[in-house]
């Protein structure tokens, strides 16, 4: 029975995903399982009999001496994170648990270490910190946008009721864009999905034709272009006409010599003439969003034109300020 138990324990140690290493009081390695071989690059034959300093970086040598000192005093050592050295010289971040090994007489004869590679954990934590900083940055930007919406809507509203209605509509438009981003973990939203999402409330009122190539927009572009589409839709619902060929939303990409020189162009065209003069006067929050806020946020330009009984709004912006998945240097410029 005892032999059977010992065999089971040995099998557990060998099959463990954690490196399990034992050493005597002189610091020499006594046992070394398969996980230790994978983690540190030395075979059992190469490691057993060698000093534990085989895998201890020079700046961690005092740490090993302190561990043995505390074990000798009977102190409990809590699990802690440190680094050990792989055979190829690279440092391996690990979480390590130290336990004393005692003889049948109760005397301390060595120590057992269970080490777990935390490289992936640390990388996940690093990415989480980056994500939290990015979210904090985006949230602050949205606070600024919301404050601008409130301020500009207040100055242009004829009544409290009108103010409340327009504010609710604009905040909901931002919310719709956030919904799209959250569905893809803020990794990028296709232009087609953004247009379709923003046009949903309008489809029963007016026919809309949306055409353009596949392009994934980054978070900043999604929020700003979504806000622009909302204002265009609201203008069309308030002042537009149902005559003619309906509304069209088209976009195109010119790649240029590189991503840095590529350009994104979005065009909204509708058979509306009743509010052309209002747009030309550059008044109202909608005009502020379409002609100043959105182009500025994307380092682009926007302009209105009127021809053949149609009103056209065109936005052009550098592709690097719109498209997701560009090199880090370009993404940093767009934040």
UniProtKB/TrEMBL annotation:
What keywords would UniProt list here?
ATP-binding, Chromophore, Flavoprotein, FMN, Kinase, Nucleotide-binding, Phosphoprotein, Photoreceptor protein, Receptor, Repeat, Sensory transduction, Transferase, Virulence
User: What name goes with this protein?
Assistant: Blue-light-activated histidine kinase
- List the SUPFAM superfamilies: PYP-like sensor domain (PAS domain)
Give any single GO term for biological process: regulation of DNA-templated transcription
Per its record, the protein catalyses: ATP + protein L-histidine = ADP + protein N-phospho-L-histidine
Q: Identify the EC number(s).
A: 2.7.13.3
Domain named PAC is located at 78-130
Signal peptide: which range, if any?
Answer: none
Which enzyme class, named as a word? transferase
Originating species: Aliirhizobium smilacinae
């Amino acid at each position: 029975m005892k032999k059977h138990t010992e065999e089971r324990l040995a099998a557990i140690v060998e099959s463990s995903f954690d490196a399990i290493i034992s050493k005597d009081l002189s610091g020499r390695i006594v046992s070394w399982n398969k996980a230790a071989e994978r983690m540190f690059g030395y075979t059992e034959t190469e490691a057993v009999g060698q000093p534990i300093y085989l895998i201890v970086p020079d700046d961690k040598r005092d740490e090993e001496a302190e561990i043995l000192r505390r074990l000798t005093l009977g102190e409990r050592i809590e699990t802690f994170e440190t680094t050990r050295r792989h055979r190829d010289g690279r440092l391996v971040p690990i979480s390590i648990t130290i336990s004393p090994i005692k003889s049948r007489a109760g005397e301390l004869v060595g120590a057992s270490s269970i080490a777990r590679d935390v490289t992936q954990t640390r990388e996940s934590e690093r990415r989480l910190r980056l994500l939290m900083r990015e979210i904090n940055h985006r949230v602050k930007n949205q606070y600024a946008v919301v404050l601008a919406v409130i301020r500009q809507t207040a100055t242009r509203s004829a009544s409290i009721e009108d103010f409340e209605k327009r504010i609710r509509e604009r905040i909901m438009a931002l919310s719709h864009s956030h919904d799209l981003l959250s569905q893809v973990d803020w990794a990028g939203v296709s232009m087609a999905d953004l247009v379709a999402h923003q046009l949903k409330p309008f489809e029963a009122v007016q026919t809309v034709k949306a055409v353009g190539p596949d392009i994934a927009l980054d978070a900043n572009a999604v929020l700003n272009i979504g806000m622009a589409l909302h204002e265009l839709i609201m203008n069309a619902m308030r002042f537009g006409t149902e005559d003619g060929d309906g509304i069209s939303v088209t976009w195109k990409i010119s790649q240029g010599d590189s991503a840095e020189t590529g350009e994104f162009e979005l065009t909204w065209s509708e058979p509306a003439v009743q509010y052309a003069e209002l747009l030309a006067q550059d008044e109202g929050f909608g005009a502020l969003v379409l002609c100043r806020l959105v182009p500025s946020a994307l380092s682009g330009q926007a302009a209105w034109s009127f021809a053949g009984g149609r009103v056209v709004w065109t936005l052009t912006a550098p592709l690097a300020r719109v498209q997701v998945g560009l090199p880090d240097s370009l993404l940093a410029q767009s934040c």
